[in-house]
Amino acid sequence: MSGGIPLSELAEVVRSKNAGPYELTLDIIFREKEGFDLARRSGIFTPALFARLYRIPEDRVLRVIEFPAALAVKATIVRPCASGDLGDSDVYGAQQHGPLLDIVVPRGESE
């Protein structure tokens, strides 16, 4: 992993949850300020990243917000179907964080 650090090593919490019946919120809360700052400086938390991870068009990523005071990044995406709708396999949206674990944060040694 010379090219980066797995998000799972930097984050204390990686979770997903409903943000209403049509949206899903993805939360990443970092263990330490240094890890949050490293990830933030890398610029990886973009709508394009979440679109790629969730295989959705970028316009279905509604927002990506950094919360320095909480050492957190939050993204909101449009759910593939409404919560509880026919075909929904996760009514609470609590099992949708898996793709986030594939994130590798660049080390930033060139900075």
Verbal overview:
- This protein is α+β, with helices and mostly antiparallel strands.
- The chain has one domain (4-81): Alpha-Beta Plaits.
- Helix content is 20%, strand content 32%.
- A four-stranded antiparallel β-sheet has the order 2-3-5-4.
- A hairpin with a 4-residue loop joins strand 2 and strand 3.
- It is elongated.
- The two termini are 18 Å apart.
Based on the model shown, name its key terms.
3 helices, 32% strand, two-stranded antiparallel sheet, alpha+beta, 6 strands, 111 residues, Alpha-Beta Plaits, four-stranded antiparallel β-sheet
Percent of residues in helices comes to 10-25%
Overall body shape: elongated
| Major β-sheet profile | 4 strands, antiparallel
H and E order:
EHEEHHEEE
Strand content: 25-35%
CATH topology: Alpha-Beta Plaits
SS class: alpha+beta
Order of strands, main sheet, comes to 2-3-5-4
Q: What is this entry, summarized?
A:
This protein is an alpha+beta fold. Helix content is 20%, strand content 32%. The strands form 2 sheets. A 4-stranded antiparallel sheet has the order 2-3-5-4.
Topology:
Layout: E1 4-6, H1 7-10, E2 11-18, E3 23-30, H2 33-42, H3 47-54, E4 61-67, E5 72-78, E6 104-106
Antiparallel strand pairs: 1-6, 2-3, 3-5, 4-5
